[in-house]
């Protein structure tokens, strides 16, 4: 009865692609390979080129230079209505003069599918998004979340090998967004369609994606699984964009395979050294750092920076602290349930092992683009 | 209990309504006049002026002429005006604004000025007293109305719906037919109605380019009333009043039924 829609996902190959609007470079020489059936998220701040990339794949804009292949075929010059790609927009874009059923039937009618076959497919697609009871309603009678589910059914009803989603949950409130994220994940698992998802929300990207491509200033900074991006960011921008982090800057001395950074009058030792001549910074993850009382016995090899608690937040699952270090940097620390409690104004030591920090080349743009 | 100012406001509205309706209310009793005079109040009662309108070839021909011309104008002006509205709405803001100002000049320029210009050109091109001449002139006068009505709809039309339709597999013509046109249809229809009425009751230009062989209804009314004070004019007026009222009521009913979208 409710056999899921099935389609073989299409692969996408983007090579040396650029998009220019006059003098403005929206997309600068990107390479991106997406595997069949993969859930790929394009993540980045606004104006980073992620939506431009989606529009190139969808055929809404033309590529300025480079190549774009979908399912092994070049689509250069192919208009969007011949690409057979499902697209879900942030603002739903349901046709207001058609009922939910008619909206979902629209792409089928265009493909010459009529009668019972069409009705069956519409029902199946609406069942998939749990909207079958609403087939006779008009879009303006539905809530935002319901409209977006209908839009999803409409984009999938013709079994496209590829589904593009442009911030589809951006206009919805948090609870609904989290629920729909799981729905989208389930549908992706059932269908085997390739999903390309654009968002600026890194948490959403982590929840949904097989892999994430992080965009910044028209370039791709890094492509990888959420874990790879979080644990081994390739650039300071990626490190700061994915998850919470503290960035330490100071005078650096390199001796052998050790990098030593002096922050105020305290030293931090890091294993390894950066290749090239870039100035190193240290990236700390809040849960890889512990708070200790200033007198506590040091663990061998541990780095310690002294500071005072500037903010203490109880989160139920643990606590989050903001610690002002001697050079006024704010360090973010998450301590698990059961760790010692600290109050605002307490003198503390921020402690972490050299293996738990990440050395990255400094990049001033990583600070500016975060808002 | 309604306050004094509310009562005053109500009375004032009633007064304005009366003022607006007065000419019409004068015409209706006059059309049943027993005598051949346009005196008000009328004397006696008869249907003879209605009878005259439906049987006298002067009246029937001019009515048919007006109807044919207005129908052609409604079609031509709606097509051209709708296309113009697309151009104006989707051109760059500055170009669009300039084009729009240019396209609505027939509404702004005094009718007499236009009429003189049209007459001068028609004399040379032998368009005086022809259906083509009337259609061309009236289309020009009607286009601004279509432009304004359609543009009002296009401006609130969400172009992202066209992008969505394209992504679902619709080519440009199909997008227009299945998405754009249905959503701007109220504007197109009211534009067509305005175009029809613009042509149907146009008198200034018509007086210049008319000929004894091709008269429109307004020209016939005007000549008839200036020549022999024929109460048939009042009968025509009453009929037109009835017809337009019915059209508007029908339009409103359709409007409420479509109100959903």
From TrEMBL, chain A:
Signal peptide: none annotated. One of its GO terms (biological process) is quaternary ammonium group transport. GO terms for molecular function: ABC-type putrescine transporter activity; ATP binding; ATP hydrolysis activity. Residues 12-242 form the ABC transporter domain. SMART domains: AAA. Keywords: ATP-binding, Cell membrane, Membrane, Nucleotide-binding, Translocase, Transport. This is Spermidine/putrescine import ATP-binding protein PotA. It comes from Mycoplana dimorpha. The lineage of its organism: Bacteria, Pseudomonadati, Pseudomonadota, Alphaproteobacteria, Hyphomicrobiales. The gene is potA.
From TrEMBL, chain B:
GO terms for cellular component: plasma membrane. Pfam families: BPD_transp_1. It is found in: Cell inner membrane; Cell membrane. Residues 63-251 form the ABC transmembrane type-1 domain. It is a multi-pass membrane protein. PANTHER family: INNER MEMBRANE ABC TRANSPORTER PERMEASE PROTEIN YDCV (PTHR43357). This is Putative spermidine/putrescine transport system permease protein. It comes from Mycoplana dimorpha.
């Amino acid at each position: 009865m409710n056999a899921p829609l099935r389609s073989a996902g299409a692969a996408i190959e983007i090579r040396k692609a650029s998009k220019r609007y006059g003098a403005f470079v929206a997309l600068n020489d990107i390479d991106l390979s997406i595997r069949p059936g993969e859930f790929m998220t394009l993540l980045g701040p606004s104006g980073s080129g992620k939506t431009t990339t989606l529009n190139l794949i969808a055929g809404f804009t033309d590529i300025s230079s480079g190549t774009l292949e979908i399912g092994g075929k070049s689509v250069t010059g192919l208009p969007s209505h011949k690409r057979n790609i499902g697209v879900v927009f942030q603002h739903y874009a349901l046709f207001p003069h058609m009922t939910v059923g008619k909206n979902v039937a629209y792409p089928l009618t265009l493909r010459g599918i009529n009668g019972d076959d069409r009705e069956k497919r519409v029902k199946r697609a609406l069942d998939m998004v749990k909207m079958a009871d609403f087939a006779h309603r008009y879009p303006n009678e539905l809530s935002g979340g319901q409209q977006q589910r209908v839009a999803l059914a409409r984009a999938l009803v013709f079994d496209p090998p590829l589904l593009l989603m442009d911030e589809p949950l951006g206009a919805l409130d948090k609870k609904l967004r989290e629920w729909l994220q799981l729905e989208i994940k389930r549908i992706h698992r059932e269908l085997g369609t390739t999903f390309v998802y654009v968002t600026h929300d890194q948490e959403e990207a982590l929840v949904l994606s097989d892999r994430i491509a992080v965009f910044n200033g028209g370039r791709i900074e890094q492509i990888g699984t959420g874990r790879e991006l979080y644990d081994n960011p390739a650039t300071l921008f990626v490190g700061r964009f994915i998850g919470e982090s503290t960035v330490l800057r100071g005078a650096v001395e390199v001796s052998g395979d050790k990098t030593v950074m002096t922050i105020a009058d305290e030293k931090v030792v890091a294993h390894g050294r950066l290749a090239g001549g870039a100035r190193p910074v240290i990236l700390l993850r809040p849960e890889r750092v512990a708070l200790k009382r200033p007198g506590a016995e040091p663990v061998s090899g541990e780095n310690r920076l002294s500071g005072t608690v500037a903010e203490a937040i109880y989160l139920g699952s643990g606590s989050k602290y903001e610690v002002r270090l001697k050079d006024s940097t704010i360090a973010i620390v998450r301590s698990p349930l059961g760790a010692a409690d600290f109050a605002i104004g307490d003198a503390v030591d921020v402690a972490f092992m050299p293996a738990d920090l990440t050395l990255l080349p400094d990049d001033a743009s990583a600070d500016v683009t975060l808002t | 209990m309604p306050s004094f100012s509310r009562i005053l406001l109500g009375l004032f509205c009633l007064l304005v309504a009366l003022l607006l309706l007065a000419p019409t209310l004068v015409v209706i009793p006059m059309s049943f006049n027993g005598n051949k005079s346009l005196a008000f109040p009328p004397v006696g009662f008869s249907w003879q002026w209605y009878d005259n309108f439906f049987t006298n070839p002067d009246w029937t021909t001019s009515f048919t002429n007006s109807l044919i011309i207005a129908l052609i104008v409604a079609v031509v002006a709606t097509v051209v005006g709708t296309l113009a509205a697309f151009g104006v709405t989707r051109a760059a803001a500055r170009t669009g604004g300039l084009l729009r100002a240019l396209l609505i000049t027939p509404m702004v320029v005094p009718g007499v000025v236009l009429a003189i210009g049209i007459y001068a050109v028609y004399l040379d091109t032998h368009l005086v007293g022809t259906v083509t001449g009337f259609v061309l002139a009236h289309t020009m006068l009607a286009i601004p109305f279509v432009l304004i009505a359609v543009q009002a709809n296009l401006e609130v039309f969400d172009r992202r719906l066209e992008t969505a339709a394209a992504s679902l597999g619709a080519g440009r013509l199909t997008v227009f037919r299945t998405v754009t046109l249905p959503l701007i249809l109220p504007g197109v229809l009211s534009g067509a109605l305005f175009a029809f009425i613009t042509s149907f009751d146009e008198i200034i230009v018509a007086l210049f380019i008319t000929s004894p062989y091709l008269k429109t209804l307004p020209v016939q009314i005007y000549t008839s009333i200036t020549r022999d004070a024929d109460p048939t004019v009042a009968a025509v007026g009453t009929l037109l009043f009835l017809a337009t009222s019915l059209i508007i009521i029908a339009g409103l009913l359709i409007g409420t039924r479509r109100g959903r979208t």
